[in-house]
Amino acid sequence: MTQDELLRVVDGLIEVPPGTLQGSESLEDLDGWNSMAMMGFISFADKNGVRLSPRQIAASTTVADLIQLVQTTR
C-alpha cells in the first residue's frame, strides 16, 4: 500500500477530508486521534496482514510513524 493510500486511511479514521494529512503531523495534535481511531488503525492493519499491538501504536508520535509501521511490519 502506498503512503498516499495510507494517509487517506488515517484521514478517514480521524474524520477529516481526504488529502488533509501530509504525514508530518503529530498524533497528539490531531483532534480525531483517539482510542477509537487507534483501534480502527489496528483493525485496518490486521485486515491487510499486518499485526500491530497497541503498544506499537502508542509509541508512534506522527502520522508518518503509523505509515512506517504498516509498511515495515509483517
What's the SSE blueprint?
Elements: H1 3-13, H2 35-47, H3 54-59, H4 63-72
Outline of this structure?
The chain is mainly α. It contains four helices and no strands.
Number of domains: 1
Q: Helix count?
A: 4
**What is the mean pLDDT?**
94
CATH topology call: Non-ribosomal Peptide Synthetase Peptidyl Carrier Protein, Chain A
- What is the correct CATH architecture? Orthogonal Bundle
Specify the CATH homologous superfamily.
ACP-like
Can you tell me the CATH class? Mainly Alpha
Q: What oligomeric arrangement do these chains adopt?
A: single chain
How would you describe the shape?
Answer: globular
What percentage of the residues does DSSP assign to strands (E)? under 5%
Tell me the number of strands. 0
Low-confidence stretches: none
- Main beta sheet: strand number and arrangement? none
Helix/strand/pairing category: mainly alpha
Radius of gyration: 11 Å
Share of residues in helices: 40-55%
Distance between the termini: 13 Å
Describe the 3D structure.
The protein has about 70 residues and is mostly helical. The chain has one domain (about 5-70): Orthogonal Bundle (Non-ribosomal Peptide Synthetase Peptidyl Carrier Protein, Chain A), CATH 1.10.1200.10. It is built from four helices and no strands. It has helices at about 5-15, 35-45, 55-60, 65-70. The radius of gyration is 11 Å and the shape is globular. The two termini are about 15 Å apart. The model has no long low-confidence stretch (mean pLDDT about 95).
